[in-house]
Amino acid sequence: MAPCLSDLIVSIAALSGELTHGLDGTNATMTRETWTGGTYSHAWGTGAITGVAGGLMGIEQTAPAFANFTVKPRIGSLDRAVIRVPTLRGPIAVEANKTHTSVAVPCGASARLCLAHGLDLSDSDGIGGKLLLLDGRVVEGVRRSLDVAGRHLCAEGVGCGAGGAARTLSVA
Question: Residue 158's closest CA among 169, 144, 147, 150?
């Protein structure tokens, strides 16, 4: 079985000392050229950021200017992962752990929010008798999907929360 991307990132970070080597205290907006150092002067230095945003946190633009996007975290063995991605519509802030995915959806955008789970999907309702909750309320018309890193339950067409508050997806 292939390792999860997050497990690979954690392994690389452990080998190099820390994932954010050289970023602490510099207010840098990109990583260095390599995991262990180098300069900030080359465009390829941002490669790690796109790997984390798209691979680990599963943020995928599905319409121009992030009018629509998907968040499908694949955090593997990590206990928690957090990211803030700037967009023209406003930042997308994501916090994911084993039990919930919390996303600040920019107002004027629509998101497909997904939660990785370890449920048995073989029963009749397809989600182990559990309910998918968005902000503590049952999501109607649950759509589930499978991907390489694991199974996810998703809520479609999620907009921004009241006053721009983050929306939280969980299973009960």
Answer: 169
Residue 42 scores a pLDDT above 80: no
Pair 85, 59: CB distance under 8 Å: yes
Residues of the chain with CATH 2.60.420.10: 63-172
Q: How confident is the model over 19-36, as pLDDT tens digits? A: 455 555 666 666 666 656
Q: Token pair of 73, please? A: 């975290």
Residue 34 main-chain phi, psi, to 5 deg: -130, 170
pTM of this structure? 0.72
Q: What is the 3-state secondary structure (H, E, C) of 92-108?
A: EEEEEECCEEEEECCCC
How confident is the model over 91-112, as pLDDT tens digits? 999 999 888 999 999 999 999 9
The CATH T-level fold of domain 63-172 is Maltose phosphorylase, domain 3 (2.60.420)
Residue type, 67: A
